[in-house]
Specification:
Elements lengths: L11 H12 L5 H13 L7 H17 L20 H5 L2 H11 L5 H8 L3 H17 L4
Length: 140
């Protein structure tokens, strides 16, 4: 993996996913998000880092689309987030929480790689912040 940082879009797989999100039609974006999250949740054994980083990016997109969500402000994140798609993506908040829980599980390459480095606490804080925003959202 070329780029690797603590932010949800600070790696090559997540940046590529952001590009795919931007390239997808408004109608196809919910399926893209659901598939990315479900791919992580559905893994019963070892979760590969590429699946994990894409799930983190998808969860960050969902969190950004929630009412009051933080704007995605990174060069590698999606450029096409709008309020129009937020209502559909908000439905994925519970699945996004499940995906993030799977990413930080002991049987995850993402977790293993971060625990080998010195920024593990910061990376886990990013996930915890996303998770808190997703859990704190209540449908209107």
């Amino acid at each position: 993996m070329g780029a690797w940082g603590i932010g949800p879009f600070d790696n090559d797989d997540a940046a590529d996913f952001s590009g795919d999100f931007d390239d997808a039609s408004q109608v196809d974006r919910p399926e893209l998000i659901r598939d990315a999250l479900q791919n992580a949740v559905g893994v019963c054994d070892y979760l590969d880092v590429d699946v994990a980083t894409i799930a983190i990016a998808a969860a960050a997109i969902v969190a950004a689309q929630l009412p009051g969500g933080e704007r995605v402000d990174t060069a590698y994140g999606p450029k096409s987030l709008s309020d129009e798609g937020g209502a559909m993506l908000a439905d994925f908040a519970p699945l996004a929480v499940q995906a993030l829980d799977r990413v930080v599980d002991e049987d995850s390459e993402w977790r293993e790689l971060w625990h080998e480095g010195s920024d593990a606490d910061e990376a886990l804080e990013v996930i915890a912040g996303l998770r808190a925003r997703l859990l704190g959202w209540q449908p209107q």
